[in-house]
Amino acid sequence: MTESKARASVDRANDLDRRHVFHSWSAQAHRDLMTITAAAGCYVWDGEGNRLLDFSSQMVNTNIGHQHPKVVAAVQQQAAKLCTVAPQHVNEARSEAARLIAERTPGDLDRIFFTNGGADAVEHAVRMARLHTGRYKVLSRYRSYHGGTETAINLTGDPRRWPNDHGNSGVVHFFGPFLYRSQFHATTEAEEAERALAHLEQTIAFEGPETIAAIVLETVPGTAGIMVPPPGYLAGVRALCDAYGIVFIADEVMCGFGRTGKWFALEHFDGVVPDLLTFAKGVNSGYVPLGGVAIGPAIAATFADRAYPGGLTYSGHPLATAAAVATITAMREEWIVENAADIGARVLGPGLRELAQRHPSVGEVRGLGVFWAVELVRDRETREPLAPYGGSSPAMTELVAACRAAGLLPLVNFNRLHVVPPCVLTETEAKEGLAILDHALAAADRHTV
């Protein structure tokens, strides 16, 4: 395609987008969107022809990078064979995807219910828990995100919930552990875990254990801040659920499938096994929409002779599950999960901590694998955030602009810069990204005291 034709194509796409596309999480009259025209590996190209290192993994989902040839080929081959099939019929791609997922889920979460994405995976997990227990209330933490559909958005513990929360969803929020901004006046991780668990048990007691169907937790919260739970916390939640007959739902939509350097983030935490586990995003790197619920034996038994009252037209869609089979196979054969662990431990983690030493705007660095957050502050002593909770600021806008101008596509949320590149990131690419961040953080430093 000639340069003039390429420019005309981009202009037409932008014009049609402005006239016809209704965008999520946006005031429609105030959109300033970047066009993506191509992608490969850890890079994308914008409408101006600029190459950007993708440190966002788009929506933290392109875990194996863009346009992986094995997954592209699998989708093409499946399309030529069987594009779609009703969910009541067996198809080879769905069956094989379920096997591969069940082999990797922790414990005995061996039955897979497929959905179209993460939000409806959470919706169905909650429905299963309510039907299994005969109870209605569900507990979830503040500083969390579980999806944009009705139940999932009410479970969410960040400001995206507020316009959709009418207080009648049966959801009760509690504080999870977050030592840097502790609600419990803790000074160590051990204190934070102990006090957060005591708070959760008190919440259960005050709400009435016999009314609570489930506790839903992101194993490692994602867009809410990548707060890695302290040792013992998740095991403590598992124990509380066992003590009170509550279903434990682990949300691994964002942190699963290699993101933390393990197949599932739960593997970092002493063999904790939930009753239900939700997944999406990295299961097929987002190439075709797919999510699901991995189901333990107790809840599977509830629906052995009783019909499960739920389903989706595209549950286990052949193109999506073929992409999952190819993705999981490529991750295994190419040691992609191990690469995420290595790059995180050897390059990203140390590199980000080194940046923290040089930049006064960095309050804390935390994460695992290729799943990191840089907490930005105006004042390290008071920990005043560089943007208010639920909002942005000129400082964050300048930081994003500096990243893009230097060739990096970042992900920011409130006062945080999230470093969440694909799991296939190389050492050279990681150092390239860190060098750009080193340069861009000067924009944030100018707003410190």
Give a brief rundown of this model.
This protein has 449 residues and is an alpha/beta fold. It has 13 helices and 16 strands.
Task: Note the topology.
Blueprint: H1 3-20, E1 36-40, E2 43-46, E3 51-54, H2 57-60, H3 69-81, H4 92-104, E4 111-115, H5 118-133, E5 137-141, H6 150-155, E6 171-174, H7 189-207, E7 212-218, H8 233-244, E8 247-251, E9 276-279, E10 291-295, H9 297-302, H10 318-333, H11 336-358, E11 362-368, E12 371-379, E13 384-385, H12 394-405, E14 408-409, E15 411-413, E16 416-419, H13 427-445
Parallel strand pairs: 3-14, 5-6, 5-7, 7-8, 8-9
Antiparallel strand pairs: 1-2, 2-3, 4-10, 9-10, 11-12, 12-13, 12-16, 15-16
Please provide a written account of the structure.
By secondary structure, the protein is α/β, with parallel strands linked by helices. It is 39% helix and 17% strand. It contains 13 helices and 16 strands. The chain has helices spanning 3-20, 57-60, 69-81, 92-104, 118-133, 150-155, 189-207, 233-244, 297-302, 318-333, 336-358, 394-405, 427-445; strands at residues 36-40, 43-46, 51-54, 111-115, 137-141, 171-174, 212-218, 247-251, 276-279, 291-295, 362-368, 371-379, 384-385, 408-409, 411-413, 416-419. It has a seven-stranded mixed beta sheet, with helices on both faces. Strands 11, 12, 13, 15 and 16 form a five-stranded antiparallel beta sheet that branches. β7 (212-218), α8 and β8 (247-251) form a beta-alpha-beta unit. The longest helix is centred in the last third of the chain and has 23 residues, at 336-358. The radius of gyration is 22 Å and the shape is globular.
